Here is the input.
Amino acid sequence: MSSRTSIEVHSQQKRTQLFTHFLGEAARTLTMRANTRLLSIEALRVIAILCIAIFHSFLPWFESMVDWDGFLAGTALAPNGRASLQALVFMGSINQLGAWGNHVFIMISGFFLLPRAAETSVLPGYWHMQVRVTARRIAIILTTVVLYGLIALIAHHFAPEITNAELDDWYWISFGIQFVWVYLALVVLCPFIGWLWWRVRKQNQLLAALLIVVYALNFYIAFFSQGTGEPGVLDWRKLMSAVSYGMSFLVGGWIAQHVRPGSCCYGCHAFVLALIGMIVAEFIAGSLGGIDSVNSLSYRSTSIFAFAMAVSALLCALAQPADSATRHPRLARVLAFASAGTLGFYVLQAFFSTGWHTAADTILMWALGFGLAPFIVIGSLFSLLFYLAIILLDACIDQVVVRRVSKLFVGHKPAE
Here is the structure.
């Protein structure tokens, strides 16, 4: 046998050994993820959705401060005829936490979905398997939207003041739940992203470059090109919002590949630093530029602080050991129950925003008469009760239907 032939045979054997090793590692990783429910990540998901509930409760008041019409003059938010610094910092921070919650939700989804797709992309039958699991995920999302959409339309027929669902105006089910459609798009694209991502050699460099470009454009949008009114579906600023969430999805997958549960000891410190940095930035923006600067700093999904807090919060959650759910089974069941209604919360609060915002605004206007602190506390308590009410309602309605839909895809129930 010639030396060249020997080298080729040796290379082939080496590739076979590496491929076999990869399959073993992938199988062990997938088994760990399939059999383990990380208690801290479920808790993070619940905290994130609660922050989103608080954000939506206070959003009309922040918008009233941005589009100043004098309505709030003389209240605890604007005692001297303009928004106070304390109110600016609080409202700006609430906006940041709302965006943080969205990034956390997408990042956790990427944490579970993307590595599974990437690591199995070399296996035979990959695309067939991905069609089945993706179809199941799509069916669950659309089931929730259609079910609550029908309920909202029926409610509008009998009590139009409690819902914004109308047959002759489809804004409520298009732009009204645009975040849900972004999530659906990421679910559809996940098999393709995973397949491509596994074949990228310099993943770290590519991810860093994409983050720099995306958040440089986000900075430009927030401070120099917000535009007026609601941007169209193909407006580049609207598309950048989806791209920003796509980056969170990708970062979540990257974290799952590189950080094992119980091995991260710096995430919590990083989150505290990011949170303090955000509050300081809001204080500086409120002091120097007023409401316009605060609005720019927390504009939609563009905030680098919200993204940094989401990354560090996920790393903080991974400081817990992988078997935390087995150590605290009751708490695990409670958190799993609460987090199961996350999608339902997004859809239901959007479809019935007219009704619940009327109640929230009435309560918050009453609380504002007692000062800024009661306004904050009562608004937060209302958000908590509102969140719990939707979770319970979703468990009785949507989750029952979703379980029946899931049975159509028995054997293909990936962690999400």
